[in-house]
Design goal:
The protein has 952 residues and is of the alpha/beta class. The chain folds into four domains: 2-175, no CATH class; 202-520, Thiamin diphosphate (ThDP)-binding fold, Pyr/PP domains (Rossmann fold, 3-Layer(aba) Sandwich); 558-805, Rossmann fold (3-Layer(aba) Sandwich), CATH 3.40.50; 813-951, Rossmann fold, CATH 3.40.50.11610. The protein is globular and about 105 Å long. Residues 598-795 form the Transketolase-like pyrimidine-binding domain. E1 component of the 2-oxoglutarate dehydrogenase (OGDH) complex which catalyzes the decarboxylation of 2-oxoglutarate, the first step in the conversion of 2-oxoglutarate to succinyl-CoA and CO(2). Keywords: Oxidoreductase, Thiamine pyrophosphate. Its EC number is 1.2.4.2.
C-alpha cells in the first residue's frame, strides 16, 4: 500500500483531489490557502499551460492536469531544500488525509443504533496510508484550509481527533460529490467549526425529550388500546418526530410560510397528531369506527391527509400533509406540484416561502423509479420548487422480510440523490440531538442554495411491517438486538438525568403527562391556530357540492375572437420566423378574419387566449408541448437569427392582453409518471389554473398508470379531493403501430364511476375550443381526459367556421344525416366516437346509404343519456343500431357504452358491433393489415349484423 502511495508524486495520483480543492479555494480567495501554496499558485499564473496557452485564470481541472503532466515528465521542481521538500510532502499527506475524511468519513461513522456489525475498516482514513506514523502525531501542520480551530497550525494528533469527531461520530455526511466549491466550503465550515456536535440549551434538550416522549407515547397508547389494528408504528424511529418538529420551527424562523409534506405509512399517524396537531380524540374515533363517513369510498386512516396552521418562532406556518395511497413514493411528484402551485400563487420564484418535505422509507427510496424521475425535475425551469428536504426513516430492513443484501445495489439507500448532487446527512437515530442538528443543517442549506438535501435517520423498527406481522420469522438476529434495546426515549432520558438537566423522575413525569393528554384527547404538538386564514389560501367551497351539468356559456363575441386571433398571430417586427411557421401564422390570421375555417391548433390556441384574457391561468406541460408533437401548436416561436440557445423565443399567448393571467408552456423531461403526478399536485392546489398534461402519444400514459389509478380516478371518492387536471392523449388508428395508435380508452372507461371524471373525444376545432373553456367556466372541478386526434389536426373535415366560436357550446352528441336523407326513412343508426366518424361519412357517400344516420358521441363519460336518447328518437323507424369503433373489440369503448346505448334504444331495435376483432395488442404494426382491417370494419358498419347482437 505504501509503495503504491509513494510511487505517486505528491502533486499527482491520490493527492490530485486535494490539489484541485486547494486551487479552487485559491481562485475564490488567495488568502485562504497556506503561504507556500499561495506563492506557488501565484507563480502558476505566469506559467504556460500544457497546451501552450496563457494560463491566467485557468480552470482548476486543466491545472491539475498540468500538475500531472509535469510530475510525469520530471520537469517540475520546487526551489527548496530537501528538508523543506520533505515537510511540504508531509503537509500534502496531511491534506490528503483531511480530504479522505471529508469524502469517506461517513463510511466509518457510528450510525447503527443496533450495532449489529463492526465498523468496516477504511484504509484511506488511517494516517499510515499516507506514510504518517506515530512520530508525526505531535508535529504542527497547517490547518488553514480547515475550520477546526482559529489557530493556523494544529498537531496531526489534534487534526486526526477533529476529523474523527466531525466526520465519524453519530453523524456521517456526504457532500464532496458536489461540483460547487462554495457549497463544499459551506459544509466544511458548518461541520468542522462545531465538529458536528450540537450545543443545545437545557430547555432545548427538554423539548427534544418531550417530542420523543410524545412519539413513543402515542405508539404505545395505540398498541395498548387498539391491539392488533394496523397503524405502521414508528417505534424505533422516534427521533423522526423531533426532526419534524425542528424542521417546522426552523423553517418558520427562516421565512417559510407553507410546508407541503409527502410520506407513506410508517409513522404517519404520529405525524398527524404530534406534528400537524390532529386531535387525538379524532384519531381514536377512526380506530373506533365512530368517525363520520361522508365520502362514497373513503380510505384507511394511514392514507389520510391533513392540514393545519401552527405557531413558529417566525410566525404562522401552514402545514399540509398530502393524501397518499399504498404506492409509497408516488406522492413525491404530487407534493412537488402542490408546492409549485403555492409558490406561483405567492409570486415566490425562489421557494423561500414554500417548502416541500418528502419522508421516505429506506427500501422505497432506493427501489422505486418515481423517486429518480422526481429528483430529475428538481433543477428544471418548469418544475423548480426551491429544493426539497428529504427525511429517510431508515429502519434497515426495508418493508418486511428482505435481506439487506437484496434490498438495493448501492452502498446507501440514498445514493440515488447523487444524480442531482444533493448532500446527504446520515445520522444515528439513537442520538436525537444529532438528528435535530442534521435537520437544522439541512434546512439552512436548502434556504441558502435552493437545492435538495437528505437527512438519513438510521434507526430500527421495533414491530413488524404492520402490527400483525412477526418479523423474527425471517430476521431472528436483528430482532434479538431490537428486543434488548431500551428505546431511544429511555436512552436520551437517562442521558439528561446524568447531565443534571432533569431530576431522576423527570422522564417518567413526561410520560405520565403525555398519557394524561391522550386520555383526555388533547393536543400534543405545537399550538394549532384555529382561526388563522392566510391571504394566499385557496377557497375550494365554490367548486364543491355541485351537481353535474354539461352546460356552460363558452361562446365569445365575434369582435373578441377576432381580437384574440390577431394577438396570437402577431410577432415583434424584428423576429425572424421559420418559413413553415410563418405560413402557419399567416393561415391562422386568415382564420381569425373568417377567410378560411379554423383548424384544431387555432381552436385550441383561441381557447387558451380567451382564458388568460379572462383571468384564468393556463399551465401546459409534457414532451414537445411548445411546438406540439405533431407540429400543430407552435405556442413557442423561435427566432431563426438568434445567437444563443437560451434567448430568441416569443410566446404570443403571453401577450394577449394587459394584465392577463399567466400562460406557461413547458417541454418536460422524458417522464410520464413524475410529470403527470406533478401536474395533478399542481391542480389539486390551484383550481383557477387550467392545468394540462399532454402525452407525446396517448399510449405513453401507460408509464403514469399509478397516478391515473390512485389519484386522478379515485382521489375524490377516497379523500374528497376535487381536481380539474386535463390530460391530452393523442389517439387514433392511422397505421402507426401499437404504441402510436391507442391511448387505452378502455382503461379510463373501466375507471369511470361516481361522476369522477370526464372522458371526451372531440372531433372538431370548435369542440376543443368550447371543451377547454368549459373546464374553467363551470363552477366545479373534475379531471378531464381528452382523447385528442392526430390526423384530424390538419384534416379539412375537422375545421370549423368562425361562427361556431361565437355561439353554442360543447356538444356531447352530434348527428350526421345524408344530404338526401329524411329522418323517418332512416333504417340504421351507426354510433361512434372519434375520427372514425369521418371515415363512416365518406363510406356512406360511397355507398349512397341515405337510410343510415351517424351519431357521434363526443363525451363518453358521464354518458349524455338525455342528449343521446333525443337523437335516437329522431329516427323512429330505425330497426338497427350499430356501435362502430377503430379499436379492437376488447378495447375502446364498446364493452362500456353498449349498456348505455342499449338503455336508450327504442323498443324492438337491435344493437350490433362493427370494428376490429379482439386483439392482445392495441394495433397492428403492418400498414397493409391496418388498411384491410379499416376497410373491413367500415363494411361491417353498413353490412348485416353479425355475432353478438342485443335486442331491446
Amino acid at each position: 500500500m505504501m509503495q503504491q502511495y509513494r510511487s505517486n508524486s505528491y502533486l499527482f495520483g491520490g493527492n490530485a483531489p486535494y490539489v484541485e480543492e486547494l486551487y479552487e479555494a485559491y481562485l475564490d480567495n488567495p488568502g485562504s490557502v497556506p503561504d507556500n501554496w499561495r506563492a506557488y499558485f501565484d507563480n502558476l499564473q505566469h506559467v504556460p499551460a500544457v497546451d501552450g496557452s496563457d494560463s491566467r485564470d485557468v480552470a482548476h481541472a486543466p491545472v491539475v492536469e498540468s500538475f500531472a503532466q509535469r510530475a510525469k515528465a520530471n520537469a517540475f521542481t520546487l526551489k527548496a531544500s530537501a528538508t523543506d521538500l520533505a515537510v511540504a510532502r508531509k503537509q500534502v499527506h496531511v491534506q490528503s488525509l483531511i480530504a479522505a475524511y471529508r469524502v469517506l468519513g461517513s463510511r466509518w461513522a457510528d450510525l447503527d443504533p443496533l450495532k449489529r456489525t463492526e465498523r468496516a475498516k477504511i484504509p484511506e482514513l488511517e494516517p499510515a496510508f499516507y506514510d504518517l506514523s506515530e512520530s508525526d502525531m505531535d508535529i504542527m501542520f497547517s490547518a488553514a484550509n480547515t475550520y477546526f480551530s482559529k489557530a493556523e497550525n494544529m498537531s496531526l494528533r489534534e487534526i486526526l481527533q477533529a476529523l474523527r469527531e466531525t466526520y465519524c461520530g453519530t453523524i456521517g455526511v456526504e457532500f464532496m460529490h458536489g461540483t460547487d466549491p462554495a457549497e463544499k466550503r459551506w459544509w466544511q465550515e458548518r461541520l468542522e467549526s462545531s465538529r458536528s456536535k450540537p450545543n443545545f440549551t437545557v430547555d432545548e434538550k427538554k423539548h427534544i425529550l418531550e417530542r420523543l416522549t410524545a412519539a413513543e407515547g402515542l405508539e404505545r397508547y395505540l398498541h395498548t388500546k387498539y391491539v392488533g389494528q394496523k397503524r405502521f408504528s414508528l417505534e424505533g424511529g422516534e427521533s423522526f418526530i423531533a426532526s419534524m418538529d425542528e424542521l417546522v420551527q426552523r423553517a418558520g424562523g427562516k421565512g417559510v410560510q407553507e410546508i407541503v409534506i409527502g410520506m407513506a405509512h410508517r409513522g404517519r399517524l404520529n405525524v398527524l397528531v404530534n406534528t400537524l396537531g390532529k386531535m387525538p380524540k379524532d384519531l381514536f374515533a377512526e380506530f373506533d369506527h365512530t368517525a363520520p363517513e361522508a365520502l362514497p369510498s373513503g380510505d384507511v386512516k394511514y392514507h389520510q391527509g391533513f392540514s393545519s396552521d401552527v405557531t413558529t418562532v417566525g410566525g404562522p406556518v401552514h402545514l399540509s400533509l398530502a393524501f397518499n395511497p399504498s404506492h409509497l413514493e408516488i406522492v413525491n411528484p404530487v407534493v412537488e406540484g402542490s408546492a409549485k402551485a403555492r409558490m406561483d400563487r405567492r409570486g415566490d420564484k425562489s421557494g423561500s416561502q414554500v417548502l416541500p418535505v418528502q419522508v421516505h422509507g429506506d427500501a422505497a427510496f432506493a427501489g422505486q423509479g418515481v423517486v429518480m424521475e422526481t429528483l430529475a425535475l428538481a433543477k428544471t425551469r418548469g418544475y423548480f420548487t426551491g429544493g426539497t428536504v428529504h427525511l429517510v426513516v431508515n429502519n434497515q430492513i426495508g418493508f418486511t422480510t428482505s435481506d439487506p443484501r437484496d434490498s438495493r445495489s448501492t452502498l446507501y439507500c440514498t445514493d440515488v440523490v447523487k444524480m442531482i448532487e444533493a448532500p446527504v446527512l446520515h445520522v444515528n437515530g439513537d442520538d436525537p440531538e444529532a438528528v435535530v442538528l442534521c435537520t437544522q443543517l439541512a434546512m439552512d442549506y436548502r434556504q441558502q442554495f435552493q437545492k435538495d438535501v437528505v437527512v438519513d435517520i438510521v434507526c430500527f423498527r421495533k414491530l413488524g411491517h404492520n402490527e400483525q406481522d412477526t418479523p423474527s420469522l425471517t430476521q431472528p438476529l436483528m430482532y434479538k438486538k431490537i428486543a434488548q434495546h431500551p428505546g431511544t426515549r429511555k436512552l436520551y432520558g437517562d442521558k439528561l438525568v446524568a447531565q443534571g438537566v432533569l431530576a431522576e423522575d423527570g422522564p417518567d413525569q413526561m410520560v405520565k403527562a403525555f398519557r394524561s393528554a391522550m386520555d383526555e384527547g388533547r393536543h400534543t404538538s405545537n399550538p394549532v391556530l384555529t382561526n388563522f386564514k392566510s391571504k394566499y389560501a385557496v377557497d375550494w367551497v365554490p367548486f364543491l357540492g355541485k351537481k353535474w351539468t354539461d352546460a356552460a356559456d363558452t361562446a365569445l363575441p365575434l369582435a373578441e375572437v377576432k381580437r384574440l386571433a390577431e394577438r396570437v398571430t402577431t410577432v415583434p417586427p424584428t423576429f425572424k420566423l421559420h418559413p413553415l411557421v410563418e405560413k402557419v401564422l399567416a393561415d391562422r390570421a386568415a382564420m381569425g378574419r373568417a377567410e378560411i375555417n379554423v383548424d384544431w391548433g387555432m381552436g385550441e390556441t383561441l381557447a387558451y387566449a380567451s382564458l388568460v384574457a379572462s383571468g384564468y391561468a393556463v399551465r401546459l406541460s409534457g414532451e414537445d408541448c411548445g411546438r406540439g408533437t405533431f407540429t400543430h401548436r407552435h405556442s413557442v416561436l423561435h427566432d431563426q437569427n438568434r445567437e444563443k440557445w437560451d434567448t430568441g423565443t416569443y410566446v404570443p399567448l403571453q401577450n394577449v392582453a394587459d394584465g392577463q393571467a399567466p400562460f406557461v408552456v413547458i417541454d418536460s423531461i422524458l417522464s410520464e409518471e413524475a410529470v403527470l403526478g406533478f401536474e395533478y399536485g399542481y391542480a389539486s392546489a390551484e383550481p383557477n389554473t387550467l392545468t394540462i398534461w399532454e402525452a407525446q402519444f396517448g399510449d405513453f400514459a401507460n408509464g403514469a398508470q399509478v397516478v391515473i389509478d390512485q389519484f386522478i380516478a379515485s382521489g375524490e371518492v377516497k379523500w374528497g379531493r376535487a381536481n380539474g387536471l386535463v390530460m391530452l392523449l393523442p389517439h387514433g388508428y392511422e397505421g402507426q403501430g401499437p404504441e402510436h395508435s391507442s391511448a387505452r380508452l378502455e382503461r379510463f372507461m373501466q375507471l369511470a364511476a361516481d361522476n369522477n371524471m370526464q372522458i371526451v373525444q372531440p372531433t372538431s376545432a370548435s369542440q376543443i375550443f368550447h371543451l377547454l373553456r368549459r373546464q374553467m367556466v363551470r363552477q366545479f372541478r373534475k379531471p378531464l381526459i381528452i382523447f385528442s386526434p392526430k390526423s384530424l389536426l390538419r384534416a379539412k373535415d375537422a375545421t370549423s367556421p368562425l361562427a361556431e366560436f361565437t355561439r353554442g357550446e360543447f356538444r356531447t352528441v352530434m348527428t350526421s344525416l345524408h344530404p338526401q336523407a329524411e329522418a323517418d326513412k332512416v333504417k340504421r343508426v351507426v354510433c361512434c366516437s372519434g375520427k372514425v366518424v369521418y371515415d363512416l361519412i365518406r363510406k356512406r357517400e360511397e355507398k349512397k346509404a341515405a337510410d343510415v344516420a351517424i351519431i357521434r358521441v363526443e363525451q363518453l363519460y358521464p354518458f349524455p343519456h338525455k342528449a343521446f336518447a333525443a337523437e335516437l328518437k329522431r329516427f323512429p323507424n330505425a330497426t338497427e343500431v350499430v356501435w362502430c369503433q377503430d379499436e379492437p373489440q376488447n378495447q375502446g369503448a364498446w364493452f362500456f357504452v353498449q349498456h348505455y346505448v342499449h338503455e336508450n334504444m327504442l323498443e324492438g331495435q337491435k344493437l350490433g358491433y362493427a370494428g376490429r376483432p379482439p386483439s392482445a395488442s392495441p394495433a397492428v404494426g403492418y400498414s397493409h393489415l391496418h388498411q384491410e382491417q379499416q376497410k373491413t370494419l367500415l363494411e361491417q358498419a353498413y353490412g348485416k349484423l353479425k355475432g353478438f347482437v342485443l335486442t331491446k
